Backbone:
C-alpha cells in the first residue's frame, strides 16, 4: 500500500481542464459560471466535413462521445502556461479527432499522464502518434500499467482487456517514466499522486477485476496503478482530476490532502467509478464524504454512473456541474471556478 509523504506543491494562478473524451456529449447544455460548453458550430477555422445530402455543402465537424476519458490540462503560473494530456480515451482516433474539433494542438502537449492501464484510457494513443508523428514525449505511469487484465463476473465468460505494448509505445517515441510514488511536474506545480493510500472502509475496489501475475489470473480488485492529477490553485485549494477513480474518490481526495497539507478542495473532475449494482451500496457513504470536503465544483464523468451522479447533484447542488465532452473548466486565484473564453 502507498506510503504517504508530504509534498511541496507550488500553487498556480489558474488551471484549465478541457474534457476531450467522455461518455456523453450534449450541445444543449448552457454555459455557466463554472463551465464553457463546446459550440455545435465548432471553433473558428476548425475542421469542416462534406455534407452532400444537406443544402449546406460543408459543415463544422462534430465532437464524438465514447466509453472512455481524456482531458487536456493547462496550468498557468507566473505568466507561463503549460499543457499536459491526461489519458487518451478508448477509440484509436477519438481523442485526436476531438482535439481537432476543439482547436487544440497535439504539438502543444508537453507530457502525458496515464491514470491507469485500462483500454478506455489508452486506446487513443495511436491516434495521437498518427496526428503528430514520432516525438519524444514523456509519459508518466505506474509499474502495474502493463499488467494483463480481465473482468470476470461470476458464472460468465471473462472479458480480457487489451494491454498496451511497452515496446510499441517506446518505439512510437514516448519516453516512459514509471513510478508508484508521488511525483511533481512543471517546476513543482502539478502533482501525480502515484499509488493511492486506501483509508476508507467502504471503497474496496472492483471485485470482479483480475490481473495476470506469474502466468496465472489472480484477484486484482484494488487496481493499484490508479492515480490522479492534482493542482493547487492559489487561495482556492486543490483541483483533483481522476480517470476512473478505481482507488475510490474519497481515498483519492484524502490522499491528495494528506500529501499536500492543503485541506481545501476547489474542484473534483473525472470518473468516480460508481456505476452499476456492484457500487450502488457505497454511493450514500461516498456522497456524504464528498459533501464533507465542501468542493467548490464537482464534475462526475465517464464511469461515475447515473445513480451516483444524481445523488451528487442533489447533495451538492451548488457545486455540481454536468459533464459533457468538449467542456472547459477554469479555476483561478481571482474568481475560483469560472467559464473559459472559447476554443480549447
Residues:
Amino acid at each position: 500500500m502507498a506510503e504517504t509523504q508530504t509534498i511541496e506543491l507550488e500553487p498556480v494562478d489558474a488551471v484549465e481542464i478541457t474534457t476531450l473524451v467522455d461518455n456523453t456529449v450534449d450541445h444543449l447544455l448552457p454555459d455557466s459560471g463554472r463551465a464553457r460548453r463546446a459550440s455545435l458550430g465548432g471553433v473558428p477555422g476548425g475542421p469542416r466535413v462534406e455534407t452532400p445530402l444537406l443544402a449546406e455543402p460543408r459543415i463544422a465537424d462534430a465532437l464524438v462521445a465514447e466509453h472512455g476519458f481524456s482531458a487536456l490540462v493547462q496550468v498557468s503560473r507566473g505568466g507561463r502556461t503549460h499543457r499536459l494530456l491526461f489519458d487518451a480515451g478508448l477509440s484509436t482516433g477519438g481523442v485526436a479527432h476531438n482535439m481537432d474539433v476543439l482547436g487544440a494542438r497535439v504539438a502543444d502537449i508537453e507530457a502525458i499522464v496515464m491514470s491507469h492501464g485500462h483500454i478506455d484510457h489508452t486506446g487513443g494513443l495511436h491516434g495521437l502518434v498518427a496526428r503528430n508523428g514520432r516525438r519524444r514525449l514523456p509519459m508518466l505511469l505506474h509499474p502495474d500499467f502493463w499488467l494483463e487484465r480481465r473482468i470476470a463476473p461470476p458464472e460468465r465468460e471473462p472479458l480480457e482487456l487489451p494491454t498496451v505494448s511497452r515496446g510499441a509505445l517506446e518505439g512510437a517515441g514516448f519516453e516512459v517514466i514509471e513510478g508508484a510514488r508521488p511525483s511533481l511536474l512543471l517546476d513543482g506545480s502539478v502533482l501525480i499522486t502515484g499509488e493511492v493510500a486506501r483509508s476508507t472502509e467502504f471503497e474496496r475496489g472492483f471485485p470482479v477485476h483480475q490481473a495476470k501475475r506469474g502466468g496465472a489470473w489472480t484477484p486484482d480488485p484494488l487496481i493499484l496503478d490508479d492515480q490522479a492529477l492534482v493542482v493547487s490553485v492559489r487561495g482556492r485549494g486543490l483541483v483533483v482530476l481522476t480517470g476512473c477513480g478505481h482507488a475510490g474518490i474519497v481515498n483519492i481526495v484524502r490522499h491528495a490532502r494528506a500529501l499536500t497539507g492543503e485541506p481545501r478542495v476547489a474542484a473534483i473532475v473525472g470518473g468516480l467509478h460508481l456505476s452499476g449494482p456492484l457500487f450502488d451500496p457505497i454511493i450514500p457513504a461516498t456522497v456524504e464524504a464528498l459533501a464533507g470536503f465542501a468542493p467548490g465544483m464537482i464534475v462526475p464523468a465517464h464511469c461515475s454512473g447515473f445513480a451516483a451522479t444524481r445523488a451528487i447533484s442533489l447533495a451538492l447542488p451548488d457545486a455540481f456541474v454536468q459533464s459533457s465532452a468538449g467542456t472547459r473548466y477554469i479555476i483561478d486565484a481571482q474568481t475560483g471556478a469560472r467559464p473559459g473564453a472559447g476554443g480549447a
In short: The chain is about 15% helix and 25% strand.
